[in-house]
Amino acid sequence: MPSCNALRETLGFLNKESFLCLLTKLIGESKYVQNNPPELIPEEDRVVKHVLDSLLPYSTTTGGGPLVVNHVSYFPCRGNLIVEYPGTVPDKILSFVGMHMDVVTANPNDWEFDPFSLSIDGDKLRGRGTTDCLGHVALVTELMRTLGEKKPQLKSSVVAVFIANEENSAITGVGVDALVKDGLLDKLKEGPLFWIDTADKQPCIGTGGMIPWKLHVTGKLFHSGLAHKAINSLELAMEALKEIQSRFYKDFPPHPKEEVYGFATPSTMKPTQWSYPGGGINQIPAECTISGDVRLTPFYNVKDVMQKLQEYVDDINENIHQLDTRGPVSRYTLPDENLRGSLTIIFEEAMSGVACNLDSRGFHVLCKATEEAVGHVKPYSITGSLPLIRELQEEGFDVQTAGYGLMATYHAKNEYCLLSDMCQGYDVFVKIISDLEE
User: Fold this and answer.
1) Is 337 a catalytic residue?
2) Domains located in the chain, CATH noted
3) CA distances (Å), 129 to each of 105, 252, 354, 379, 419, in order?
């Protein structure tokens, strides 16, 4: 077996010319892999084609090389790609997973440059998907191509899993969830799984759960000059939400582990949107809807929170006459008319957060490689949400997360990444492989 230094010398540094050539092709497909159904259904196989063009010359099937390539599709034009560089020791494995081949939408009219073609401005690589996540697709493809070309003798198998349909978790059975269900990733449980879809070159050790909610409030419409005959849905909504938030923060306070993981904020429950049917300024509206989300650190259970929120609403409905009012004629019941205001809470698809295992070898190897390649290591946590990884963790995978785009441009207009960051990302990958050989 080669020494770690020899292996690093064999795998070298990122081939910038090859990387940029591939990334140019991938960003050229970004228009066709926007994920916003029902209008925009991505065709991830457009990206798969370019990845295969890079890797098949080194595959067991067409190039006489070492790479084992498996193109797995559950829907037409929406493939996943599993690529393995076999090692010599059974059950010794590491994997890079999560490089997704779909992107969020981009409106060219809002951008300062064409989002659907790669443009280069010094160190900046600009276009939709450069950070999230076609840049990572190109980066890991280059890693696997180099393994296939250089053929170092490794004890560990190295597996890359390029996935479909990360940007829309409401649709299932297309991407990594289907691969796990079919057992195609089972052997990856034998070693660390590095989910490559975060940013800023540091280990992301914690993410937040998300519970989107809508609070629909019903009152009674009436003329504003006769407020005593109305049930003001806006006032009811504001007071009810205040009470719900107060109970939430009492039941789900800052958790001691949040400091260990470095979360910038604790769990939060807050409104972000407000809607009502409209009408004149002199009308008290009969109904309105407040929408928002819960961002939950991974030390609390999403289902427990949803159950509690429902309990709060049920209790407020039952005791609505005890809720604080606003002014001498503000009220939420009209006994003479046998009318009561009411609340209904509706939850959209929830997502659980994840806390990575800080005792695992995968975490320590990622930190060591990051410190050597980047110059420092500072793991971080955010209450932003990443789909899919909690499910992998619950299935028994040792999930660690990292990424080499820029958090500031994630899902943003004028998205870009830095070529220098991608070069350091490649170096991190090489050092991970080397360290796990020891």
Assistant:
1) no
2) 4-206+354-437 (3.40.630.10), 209-347 (3.30.70.360)
3) 10, 36, 24, 24, 14
